[in-house]
Amino acid sequence: MPATDTLDLLRAAREGGDGASDRLFEHVYGALRDIARARLRRFRPGETLNTTALVHEAYLRLVDPERLTPEDRSHFFALAARAMRFVLVDYAREQSAAKRGGDASVLPLDAVQAAAEQRADDLLALDEALETLRTYDERLAEIVELRFFGGYTYDEIAEITGRAEVTARRDWARARAWLHQALYPEKMDP
Asked: What whole-number distance in Å separates Cα of residue 168 and Cα of residue 140?
């Protein structure tokens, strides 16, 4: 998938070119589907959000000219990882609100529902910790979005960020340690 094609198609779609949005979607769909599948395989906040729904929701956020303006192909896919993060977090918030009485009916919970709700709560806690990390170190937060939410390899992260692969690995280790401490302070030695 050539970089110029992606950006040219994105520009044309934003300008309302005839069929450009459809051509862009066809052009990036496979890559977005791979990212979404990896995210949902690792962290499924509920059974009603599937790969196709995640791709479509993220895509709609990506082509909104008021939200994002990618600089190049790598930046486009970094933004795709961020868009998927926001879709997953929004979905987890909806589930969490429903669990806490947001929908008026009370349903008995079985083990599957309880597990899905716990995953939604975990995702919300991760999102909050990631935003705190962003205030501490923007670069580490970016690595988490690319690696965890985007499912990118270290090579791909190096290409997207313009940093060395070894730097991406080091940053990932630092970010994971920071997040672990933020999410599980009770497990840390005094």
From this structure: 9
Cβ atoms of residues 91 and 116 within 8 Å:
no
pLDDT (tens digit per residue) in 70-117: 777 777 777 788 888 788 888 877 776 666 554 444 444 344 344 445
Helix 111-136 to helix 165-183 angle, to the nearest 10 degrees? 120
d(CA 86, CA 137): 19
Residue type, 19: G
How far is the first Cα of the chain from the last one, in angstroms, to the nearest whole number?
Answer: 50
Residue with tokens 């395989």: 41
Residues shown for the chain: 190
Residue 127: which region, alpha, beta or left (left: phi > 0; alpha: psi -120 to 50)?
Answer: alpha
pLDDT at residue 28, rounded to an integer: 81
